[in-house]
Amino acid sequence: MAKEFNVAVVGATGAVGRMMIKVLEERAFPVKNLRLFASPRSRGKTLPFKGEEIPVDVLEEQKGFSGIDIALFSAGASRSLDYAPRFAADGAVVVDNSSAWRMDPKVPLIVPEVNPHALAGYKNKGIIANPNCSTIQMVVALKPLHDYGRLKRVVVATYQAVSGGGQKAVDELINQVKAWCKGEPLPEPRVFAHQIAFNCLPHIDVFLENGYTKEEMKMVNETKKIMEDPSIAVTATTVRVPVFYGHAEAVNLETEKKITVEKARELLADFPGIILLDNPEAKEYPLPIYAAGRDEVFVGRVREDESIPHGLNIWVVADNLRKGAATNAVQIAELLVQKFL
Ligand code: 3JN
Questions:
Q1: Does the Cβ of 218 fall within 6 Å of ligand 1?
Q2: E strand segments, 100-190
Q3: Which of 141, 215, 244, 284 could share a disulfide with 316, CB 3.0–4.6 Å?
Q4: Ligand 1 pocket test: which of 74, 98, 173, 201 has the largest number of ligand atoms within 8 Å of its C-beta?
Q5: Domain 134-321 in the same topology as domain 5-130+325-339
Q6: Contact 227/241 with Cβ under 8 angstroms?
């Protein structure tokens, strides 16, 4: 019989944790036993997996974590910093969805379609980092273009769904839209800094000293690490938009070697994990409503940047909770199992 693994999901009750459980089931990951952990707020809860209700254990009340082979973490950066090394010390390989370990030179930052060879680095600390959602979908689209024409510079603006901020953020948009439809005053924003309904907020995560947000600098730094090329110039503007699921990105890129639109379309269409959807005359291009519920990265609006000799513009859309988080983490676990465990 094929080998099976004891798997844990840490931060199981959050939007990404729940999606991790769903994706493990959908992709028939070889799970022997599934353990779920969350904070004391989730005490007594259960979550469904393969027709069973699995109890959620309180993370902070555990004495140890032995007997776990793979732990998928979606518990926030501070709990990852604290608990990922403890799971690793007890023998698990941790796949962590937070920013806690992404820029640690001893921790591989993996997108399976892009840099699978870097996975072996998990042996350093027993930890593998899952990139930020906006980074993941962008590097999937950039990789085939980089391999062919070598990227010099990337300028990206994002249009990010509220689900990136968790279920409370989704509820905040719903409640503002409901109030607006009833002609009532909108409830005060709690998750976002301003009203998100019928608005766009150029502010995701906190502001840093250089005037960028942390979300923007995650895209800059993580892209260089994953592409293994610090010389690629990257700049980002990240924007929250009133969409529930699916981040979109307008990506402008400059390459050393010219890539024609035809060649770019061919490279993108042939790359694993990408669906090229680029028929403007038929009004076909990627949309968040198409990408939601899907595991692929959708690319379209491929066109030359006519303002420079070797430039392209592309439009990239993916489900932020799936390829941007849970699916990428499970794909990392699949690769780990295939190659190492
Ligand atoms: O807002 C989004 O669309 C993505 C949010 C990601 C996020 C939110 C809070 C903390 C992260 C992340 O994955 O980078 C973190 C974090 O781990 O720092």
A1: yes
A2: 127-129, 151-159
A3: 141
A4: 98
A5: no
A6: no
List, edge to edge, every strand of the sheet that includes 311-318: 233-237, 151-159, 247-255, 311-318, 297-304, 274-276
The superfamily in CATH containing domain 134-321 is: Dihydrodipicolinate Reductase; domain 2 (3.30.360.10)
Q: In the beta sheet, which residues pair with residue 260?
A: none
Q: Cα dist. 173→193, 215, 243 in Å? A: 13, 20, 9
Q: What is the pLDDT of residues 27-86, one digit of tens each?
A: 999 999 999 999 999 999 999 999 999 999 999 999 999 999 999 999 999 999 999 999
Nearest to 75 by CA among 123, 41, 51: 41
Torsion of CA 134, 325, 267, 221, to 10 degrees: 40
Whether ligand 1 lies within 6 angstroms of the CB of 77 is answered as yes
Q: Token pair of 330, please?
A: 């499970």
Give the tens place of pLDDT for each residue, 154-208: 999 999 999 999 999 999 999 999 999 999 999 999 999 999 999 999 999 999 9
Both structure tokens of 308: 């420079």
- 310 catalytically annotated: no
d(CA 331, CA 29): 9
Does domain 5-130+325-339 fall under CATH 3.40.50.150? My reply is no
Q: Is 247 a catalytic residue?
A: yes
Would you list the domain boundaries of the chain?
5-130+325-339, 134-321
Centre of ligand 1 from the C-alpha of residue 79, in Å: 14
48: enclosing H helix or E strand: strand 46-49
Residue with the nearest Cα to atom 1 of ligand 1? Answer: 164
Terminal Cα distance for the chain, rounded: 15
Q: Which of 146, 194, 247, 310 is catalytic?
A: 247
Distance of CA 298 to the CA centre of its chain: 14
Helix pair 214-226, 133-149: axis angle to 10 deg: 40
Q: Relative to the CA of 218, which ligand 1 atom is closest?
A: 14
